[in-house]
Queue: 4 jobs
Job 1
Amino acid sequence: MKHFKDKVAVITGGASGIGLALARRAAAANMQLVLADIEEGPLATAAAELKSTGTRVLTVKTDVSRAEDVENLAAQTLRAFGGAHLVFNNAGVGGVRVKTWLATARDWEWVLGVNVWGVIHGVRVFTPIMLRQGDECHIVNTASAAGFVSMASTAPYAVSKHSVVTLSEVLYHDLKAENAKVGVSVLCPAWVGTNIWNSQ
């Protein structure tokens, strides 16, 4: 994807951290923005900042672990802008730092729900939309360096990020086999100054 002006960027986890940085970069490229986040206060603050630059911004409160929320995000995106061209499946949580056997069922469900199912829902919902559009589009899934390296006391997080890397690679091959105009990247940052480990 080479042309960004007036195209639509959808960013989950768009109210803070990497998501907000991506939104600012997309705004600088004159894109229209759809910001999705579960936190309404930071979402409104981010939208106000970006709108002040003249950028068209739609905000949608979204729990990416819920299929119906991501489906609603797509529906509202299409209603407002008519398409989606650059989708960042970026929402994520850090989870707990405990020995593997001490992570509870709730810990696993929460981290995998956001970090894995959130990306699955984003891919499942937005890829068909992009394919139907027939334009050059791109999907960026946020994983982590933890998707390649396993460290002590990070089991739910590391498992989730390994999963996102694999999902992205398989999606890439599937789209290549279809000669699709939809590209895929997986973002694997190392230590970044965000609040991901403070998520509740």
Job 2
Amino acid sequence: VSSIIISLVLIDVTSEKYTARIIGSAIPYILFWIIYFIKYNLQTIKPHKSLYKYVLTLGLPAVPYILCENIMLQSDRIMIERFIGAYEAGIYSTVSTVASIIMIVGNALDNVWCPWSYKMIQVGNIKKLKLTSTYYHLLYAFICIGFGMIAPELIKIFTSREDYWKYSWLIYPMILMLFLYLTSR
């Protein structure tokens, strides 16, 4: 919320809107890490070096992955704009923004599901895992179906351009893609 508020204020007072958005998004993170760094260094109890080693072995490989993921998330819009045009890129951007809602819901479900499923594997309760995974996939399927029913209306809310509304059917292949992506992990 703070990044949005700071971005809006900076966009209002500067002429370079894109720079204001980037700086407004970065300021809360920078402030958080400065405060965290100061607080951490003032603590009298320091963690063991083995903890640093553990965190770095898990965290460092994630950095290139996250960078590649961000590049891939933006490359589709850039390619559509370059090869077809800005109008079509706008349609795609609107539809994918609405579809990202179901991705967020799926990731939230997955964040609960994964630890539980690993625990079931660890204790050897595979039968319960198989039964529950069926219910899990059905639940997500019903969520996707329900989302698909309201998605065209969400597209109308997300954009005021009425000429984009006739492309609201494009949300259905995206919902199907996200369902297959999240249930195949």
Job 3
Amino acid sequence: RIMIKDLLNILNEQEITAFGGSPFHLQFIAMAGKERLPSLKWAMSSGDHLRPAVIDQLMEKFDDLELHVVYGMAELGGRFCELPTEALSEKKGSVGYPISGFEIAIRRDDGSHCEANEIGNIYVTGLLEFKGYFANPEANAKVIGPLGFLNGDKGYFDETGYLFLSGRSDAVFKRSGLKVSAQVINDAIMELSSIKDVYVSSEENDAEGRVPIAYVCWEHEQDLAAPDITRALRKLIPV
């Protein structure tokens, strides 16, 4: 396995002009910037959504980078959704529209369609129809049905039909009867300048069902107390 430092060194030494990887890789490319990767002209983030803060950093550090954001998984032929490059600024954080040959539906647990901005289960149908996992009928029964392929992610369409991801199914939970996305909280915390990395999950609470819990890695030293983070998040997360 190539470590991030080694990957950046290879990209630089080999004068690589185009690179495709996960949002994790693109985060470190953004941190490195054009000064360390002067040859890089084209980059693609694949597999999950790319955080708005990383897109901003890439655009700031590279003045001539062509950036592509795609969403996909092996079961659906790799990529089945793409964010148009011209929509990067306006729709940061989105994974765009399904590509030709695919359709995506956001549905509630009862199978009914969600409204705009309502988080639900992502179902995919299309030309590259997934037939099932080898010798695993239990897994197949969970993801394949008349509504299409249940890919395990949660998300929502905005008013203009752009798809936004809210995390895996187990990363969306109910607190006091309201749906909460660990992914949305994770992205908001990463907007704070003192945070280097964070992992957001949930835990059981006797009074509220499940509550979010964050494990934070500080950029330098802890200079924000928990109440400070909470106050800052109120401005970043819609209630």
Job 4
Amino acid sequence: MGKKKRWYRWLWAIPVLLALLPLYAWQLEPRLLVVKEEQVSCPGAPDGLRIAFFTDTHFGRHYNQQHAGRIVEKIEEGQPDLVIFGGDLLDAYYRDAALLDLEALAEVFQRLEPPLGCYAVWGNHDLGRGAARVYEEVLGNMGFQLLQNEAVSIPDTNITLIGLDDMLLGQPSFDWDSLPKDGVRILLSHEPDLVGALDSSAFSLALSGHSHGGQVSLPFLTSRILPTGARQYVKGWYDLDGASLFVSSGL
């Protein structure tokens, strides 16, 4: 009985932990800006090529342009050759427009000058929450080229970047036969489940976000809060019959 009593003494902590969980998930964890270095082998890619991939910044009420400087500093420290953004730049522009200084945001990201350029794709928040009318212009002011169902050949390399439209609110499509037969193909799609539905022989590497890594990994709960488009591929690396998919947890 003594052991049982000691065990029950800690039951009070369970509701306290459950109450603190949302605070960690939505207020503390997103501000823990961590850089993860990953290595992937793509036959034919330039040796030592460094790509900085970041996604799901959700600038707005909870994460404003003042945080942009930290993101840019982390990217600059990695000295990337190429910078890629995976979508959802703004959280809810219809709600937060008065709180955001888009010119100041763009000026911060203009500091990025990777030798192979900066590229981006649409996210569902960029299309569906009031940002559709400003997103492409803001990206351009930031120094990023938006890829919407189009490909671009990276100068002085044999790399082709393919950027798909958003799966949920856009119309993703692409003429794969239009691509060069040789070289490395890197696919960009905000939602990873779209990548999983494609013929993996068409690309070498795919980069996605959207899932936020499931926010918090808890049995039974995480699967219920995963967004549509990121329920099959949640975070980290996946082997798609020879091609590699990396799903970032965002910021």
